[in-house]
Amino acid sequence: MTMATTSQKVAGAKPAALRLSARRREAIAGYLFVLPDALGLLVFIGLPMILALGISVFEVDGFGNFKFVGLANYARMWSDALFWQSLKVTLVFAVLLVPLLYVAGLGLALLVQRNGRFNTVMRAMFFAPQMVSLVVVALVWQLMTVDKLGLLTRLLYSLGLGSVSLLGNPNFALFTVTGACVWFLMGFYMLIFLGGLQDIPKEYYEAARIDGAGRVQSFWYITLPLLRPTSFFVLLVSAVAAVAGAQAFDLVYVMTRGGPANSTALLITYIYQQAFQYSAFGYAAALATLLVIVLMAVTVVFFFLTRGGRFQYE
Amino acid sequence: MTSDNNTPRGWSRRSVLKGATALGAAGVAGLPMIGKAFAQDNALSFWQFYAPGGDVKTQVDWFTTMVDAWNAANDTKVNLEYVVGSDYISGSKLATSFASGQGPDIFIISPGDFLRYYNGGVLADLTPHIEAAAQQDFPQSVIANRMVDGKIYGVPMEVEPMAFYYSVKAFEDAGLNENDVPKTWDELLELGNKLTTGERYGLMFETGPGYYQNFTWYPFMWQGGGEFQTAEGKSGFDSPAVVQALKLWQDAINSGAAPRQILGGGGGDIVANLGSGYCAMQNVGIWGISAMENNAPDVPYGIFKLPVPNGGKYVTVGGGWAFVANAKGKNPEAASRFIAWALASMAPDSIQRVVDWCTVAKSDMPPRDSALKQGGEAFNKGKMAVFSKDIHPGTRAEPRVPPEVYKIISDAIQATQLGGADPQATATAASQQLDAFLASYSGAPIL
Lengths: 314, 447
Known about the structure:
The structure holds 2 protein chains of 2 kinds.
Chain A: H1 2-13, H2 22-55, E1 58-60, E2 66-68, H3 72-78, H4 81-111, H5 117-127, H6 134-144, H7 151-158, H8 173-198, H9 202-210, H10 215-226, H11 228-244, H12 248-255, H13 267-277, H14 281-305
Helix pairs in contact in A: 2-14, 3-14, 4-8, 4-11, 4-13, 5-8, 6-12, 8-11, 8-12, 11-14, 13-14
Chain B: H1 13-39, E1 44-48, H2 57-73, E2 78-82, H3 85-90, H4 93-99, E3 106-109, H5 111-119, H6 132-137, H7 140-143, E4 147-148, E5 151-152, E6 155-156, E7 160-167, H8 168-173, H9 185-195, H10 211-223, H11 240-254, H12 270-273, E8 281-285, H13 288-295, E9 301-304, E10 316-319, E11 322-325, H14 332-343, H15 348-361, H16 369-375, H17 382-391, E12 395-397, H18 403-417, H19 423-440
Parallel strand pairs in B: 1-2, 1-3, 10-12
Antiparallel strand pairs in B: 3-11, 4-5, 6-11, 7-8, 7-9, 7-10
Helix pairs in contact in B: 2-15, 10-11, 10-18, 11-18, 11-19, 15-16, 18-19
């Protein structure tokens, strides 16, 4: 009897851990799932951002010497011609890259959206550059554009455009780097657009066809409007990538080192130079802080234009 | 009902979570141990881009033999740590290691980087460890840019003068021979144009921005009597000599004789450019001899000293790397002793080590008079003889400049050479920037 009571008590004690309501347990599980990512963001993104903000008000030479300078690093930007040059290069790069990526990604997605063996192979081919290291991509493009001997250089020559130096001429170098960046990224955005296209119900196209709409009208009045959430994502991510120089940094570093004559020195390249080549870590941190502000501004503008990223199909 | 469909048989969700938690805890607990293990290693780290991972066996052997000899006779050991050349020279590895207080105990730097490290307070004074006779053994033209206030902060391992290399085949195809090498800038441009074909450039200067491009441009500035800084510490950049040097490189590009883009590892890569037939004449340093011997032994080439401008005087620039010790390292005293023992002792093996580096491991001129004497014939045979007799006597040390000065000069070269900017206007603007910087500069003297 005693044993039975004890055993009942023990048995009764066990479910005590289950007294949490289902809703609460679900919430805890949710937080646990988010925890690793949140910790990662905090440690690897949040903390460095706070530290960078702190460093930006110091003169830091990278050898353990600190000197508080207040906002001097920010003030220095106004009179730094190379900073303005790099900002200009970054904006031109973004203005070139974002629409080109949008058109290339959407164009490829439309080309290979139908299922079939051929299109599967083509999708894999268009995505293939993503599988290659950016350094290798940069080296391949460097070889293709080398003066006199490069594949693209020879092609332009054969078209009667003369001997063009695609990476050695400041007038062309940024366009060439942008081309390499588009080539590398377009497969990724193609996949995003493919996902968006597959979400559009086929019935809409059938109804439009019955009503006499052509392909262009279907694209203009069905595809594009219903791709708005995908377009928003693509434009936002590519704009942020362009301004932050996410992929472009590697390409510029290998292909041009910011040259010729600073024509491909993006803001991210300039920040890198200041920190790691000139040991001006404080100034580099101030530039990086400004870059974050620019990125936030870009994001806010996008959210404003799209009413907070919510899309209604009226 | 209770089985986890996505987990292997016998594994419950709870057991997987427990296992993951245990692994995570073990990992976190182990981190301090790893740090401790590193901290307990008292061996001196020696960072460079030659050994043990380098791909030139003679250079790997030279470094490992040297360190083995030291380690056999000393309690404080030295560990060679290889860093890939491009990462070491223009990457972030060295900078981040110092920024995090984990800089190497011993490392190598070029004159272009000397002031950055000296002004940062991380270079140890090596003078007390170098005997007086050995200090005198380094010519002032070699050691001066590694000294501050009479103290030695770096011991050079080599002197690398710049010259021109030419393709014998390209010359022969054009009906030329070694007697036709250019002696003036005008002849250089003329010959560059003559040797240019549909698939080959006649002449090549470095085009990539960086310390190396500045280094290769300095002698052209000096030849006309130009300086970027006057004896009074003001800018000397706005001068006819600077303008004509900027114009020479611009003319080479504009005439179509020189490429805007270079193959391989850049202007210092002779195999990828002259060796491949991409150019007929290339501005390269003495290291080109061993590079051609090792990688393009079947390509016949010749060497000639830098041509001079009308009314100018011959001078070339001598680069080269130096051993330095980290003043904030684990044991700066031992690191300094190692450097003095390795390259700056009057002991025969120390002198022979310099000879071996310059003749066996590489093709360089020695930074010590005794090594030049001890090396004897090795410096006076074949292509090396052209350098030792003809080119090296006009060598001037590579200037040491802070990064800000380097950048101003680099931008001026790039703007004129590739950007098409007016050389006079560019020199004037750069000079104003230099004056503004020099007025506020407070580090060690710029030389």
